[in-house]
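Bit of a strange request maybe. I'm writing a small parser for structure token strings and I need a real example to test against, not something I typed by hand. Could someone generate the tokens for this chain?
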Amino acid sequence: MFQMRSVMRNRIGLTASAVLLLSALGCAGGASDDASREDRRDTAAASSSAGSPPSLVDSRGNRIPPTKGAPAPASEASLQWTAPAAWIPEPPASSMRKAQYSLPPAPGDHEPGQCAVFYFGAGQGGEVRANVDRWASQFTEASGGHPSPEITEGKVSGMNVMRVITEGTYTPSPMMGGDTTPKPGSMLLGAIVEAPEANWFFKCTGAKKTMETHRKEFDALIDSIHTR
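Reply from user aminoacidic:
Good idea to test on real output. This should exercise your parser:
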């Protein structure tokens, strides 16, 4: 009887040891899994902070392979035009400019004029009249007020076009790129074209004499506009 009790105690002791060992292994495994998940999250965060797209992980911290999405749509920029032969194409000063030209100065003027074409993407760019008002606000008269622009409305290739002329001291907006120094005695020749996908903005500025010299060329450029 004593021998049987001893055997039973030994069996119970072994069983308890096994339970404790399995419990310890389970905790260690859980800690290891938790650490592995944290590593994967840290790797994803580091990838995101480095500038690459962040990795996706599921609720257990496992990475989800990225799915291939549909290709990006082609640009909807749809206008074409013919620039005057005397205008010199330049690299656009900002990403908002789709084209930029230097206009040779008139005799007696020391700086060339500049013409920029702005396109902000489908559905972007704001209302026509709001942009005309913004252009006018960039010019001031000797009295300190803003001159009232000369506006002409018409159509080109079936699209509505508003042409704008104003003059005075011109202070360019820093948002549009280029020189922002106030320039007295300036003139603006502008046009806003209501294209099918969005408005396009043709804005030419420079010394008044230079811009008067290129006024017919500007009108010819606007009249040449058509869709692709």
